[in-house]
Design a protein that fits this description.
CATH class of the largest domain: Mainly Beta
Strand order of the largest sheet: 1-3-2-6-5-4
Order of helices and strands: EHEEHEEEEHEEEEEEHH
Helix content: 10-25%
Distance between the termini: 23 Å
Low-confidence stretches: 202-212, 214-236
Number of helices: 5
Mean pLDDT: 84
Radius of gyration: 21 Å
CATH topology of the largest domain: Ribosomal Protein L25, Chain P
Structural class: alpha+beta
Length: 236
């Protein structure tokens, strides 16, 4: 687990199209909601908010300070400007430190790049890079791993069942789901070439409004900053 991150938030009265001016002034608008917690519109300076989001991601709790009170929360969604790549909006979900939460945790192959298979000139292909877990907020690990030393020959593979699971953490993914597999380089290259011959599928263009925030008189309205739905709050 990483160190506890604290974030001081200010109440926000600016709503709708006026949020553009708020962003130009160097603030990031946000909303805080949760079970037994009335949704509140808040904000924080761009640099401070971005730093906190980068440190905790969506798999660690952050301690919010609002009007002198502290609330433990998880980041449920973030919205970035597609051109400037700047943080535009954050949604925080209040949680209780003695109640479990569900979230995705990054998954890595221990010793990746130095596994017996890779040292022998073979290729280790990973198929998933995160896994859904359940744990108390403060027991969520920074990442999970599978033992790379067990990957040595063509066909060797690791599954979710091979994950090194810390105490207090429950894996929710299918235990038989494959995490990494060893391939012979030429066979993998041939498979990729064959897949490339099929040609990419046509992609439909999707237009969405950017840069505006909707009035947030209710939580349902806050779910759609910028005219597009950002997240679906889960039931407790």
């Amino acid at each position: 687990m990483g160190e506890q991150v604290e974030l001081k938030l200010e109440e926000r009265t600016v709503q709708g199209k006026k949020v553009k001016a708020l962003r130009r002034a160097g603030y990031v608008p946000a909303v805080v909601y949760g079970h037994d917690f009335a949704a509140r519109s808040v904000m924080a300076p761009q640099l401070i908010m971005t730093k906190a989001v980068n440190r905790v991601g969506k798999h660690h709790p952050v301690e919010l300070q609002i009007d002198g009170t502290k609330r433990l929360a998880m980041i449920k969604s973030t919205d970035f400007d597609p051109v400037k790549h700047q943080l535009r909006h954050v949604a925080f979900h209040v949680v209780k430190q003695n109640e479990t939460v569900e979230t995705e945790i990054p998954l890595v192959v221990a010793g990746e790049g130095e596994t017996p298979a890779e040292k022998a000139g073979l290729v280790v292909l990973t198929t998933i890079d995160a896994v859904q877990v359940k744990a108390l907020p403060r027991e969520l690990p920074d990442q999970l791993s599978v033992p790379g030393e067990r990957l040595a020959e063509i066909g060797d593979h690791l599954t979710v069942a091979d994950i090194d699971v810390p105490k207090g953490v429950t894996i929710l993914a299918d235990s038989e789901q494959v995490v990494a597999t060893v391939y012979e380089p030429s066979a993998l290259a041939a498979a990729n070439e064959a897949a490339g011959d099929a040609g990419p599928a046509d992609e439909a263009e999707v237009e969405a409004e950017q840069g505006e925030d909707t009035p947030q008189e209710t939580q349902a309205e806050e779910d759609k900053p910028g005219g597009k739905k950002q997240f679906e709050p889960k039931g407790e």
